[in-house]
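Table 4 source record.
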Amino acid sequence: MAHVTVFDGLSYGKGKAFAYDRISLPQMLDRTADQYADRTAVTFYQQRLTYGQLQEITRKVAAALYQSGVGKGDRVGIMLPNCPQYVAAFYGVLRRGAVVVQVNPLYAEREIEHVLEDSGAEVLFVFADLYAKLRRMAGYANLKKVIVASFAPASLALEQNATGWESFLDSAQPVPDESVDPEEDVAVLQYTGGTTGRSKGAMLTHRNLVANAQQGKELGSEQPLTEGDKILTVIPLFHVYGMTCAMNLGILTATNVILLPRFDVREVLETIKEHRPTYFPGVPTMYVALNSYPDADQYGIDAIRICNSGSAPLPVELMHSFEQKTGANMYEGYGLSEASPTTHSNPRNSSKKPGSIGLPLPGTEARIVDHTTGTRTLPIGEVGELVIRGPQVMKGYWNMPAETANALRDGWLYTGDMARMDEDGFFYIVDRKKDMIIASGYNVYPREIEEVLYMHPAVLEAVAAGVPDEYRGETVKAFIVLKPGQSATPEEIEGFCRQHLAAFKVPRLIEFRESLPKTAVGKILRRVLAEEAKKQG
């Protein structure tokens, strides 16, 4: 099995030398299953799958996909919550040499249709509760095969092109895995919002995802995951953070991945009490909820050695309060879909720095460059754009050469985030070059919301901005100018948005104005509005 070694560069932000295996994701699973067949791989309520059983189910999925005509390079959508079928579908698709298309189940119909149409996916795994929603879409007819999965066997009225999970697997005959080139072949299309309003599919190769899981393992070498460890996985697997830092890391390290389909604070605490997990990757809003829950410290949270926080900035006060209350250790990191996702993390020792995203992962280089040309490396302490190079950096954006050329330059990924580095090599995110809003760990792009607002017949002008929110980190606020003679209420605008946007993108605050601040050329000054909202508290 080939190994590839990545050495740090001489620019600042040096990750130590790092060797990763040149294997595919299914080969990573097989290596674990062949060595630890009887070890628990997945726990889901009363269900338990060993690594040997998981390996067998993924092979059945691959065989059934083969019978359905899925071949190498075909795109297959997965629109499932956290459940064993998600893990089986994910690795089964990859055994066929096909590409997993991550479809967020929380998306509105128009958003789902865009992902399916843009990716060209003709096969889709979907959760039973979402099947009726799927059937209402105009693009449903373009799907050649729909596999409907549920938490328990269910009787559903299915269209001709649809089948239940059990029926899909029943007649499958074993087939060999399709050969892939880990360095070049795309494993996952991870859709991320775009400043133009178009969602972009980040092409993540097998190499990207295997390397990032191995980087995560190397990061935790001082406190390694070993037999008996458990990863509590509430962050969704359809999100790149959950996919890599819970599922793939768990499979690499032969760890028991405990799945919960949604975040319910009482259920999470009861799960902690029952299973005593040792690793919990979460987002700040989860820690806010756990920290404020009465008697949370009575549920055995101190069993968790590592609470990893990502997807949104972690308030230092929250970190200190949570650690003091629970006895757990919290570590903040940084990543983005285009980097599989993790690029930085605080060390798993006493040298972590609250408020910092930490150091570059092993094999990863990071620089701070001037935000105008992106070519000049800035001195320590100066704020500029964070750029990254490493084996986890994506191949590019699906069918978007111009966007790819802008994001990837001379091997460096331009993150669009403004940051600085201190004299010890720790990095700090200070602002976002993009206007992205991070609400409850989800990326929200203002342009996407504005397009929906402009669809309302009473709206003349509209702009969306992120404003601080104690629980969600940020929440969406819409500033609206109505057409002359037209009227609308905040409730009406919110209801309209809910018809066209995922719930986490819907503006929670709506303000009507006579006019909006603009530049001399007529561009609305979003930043001015956001700053005004912050001052108003």
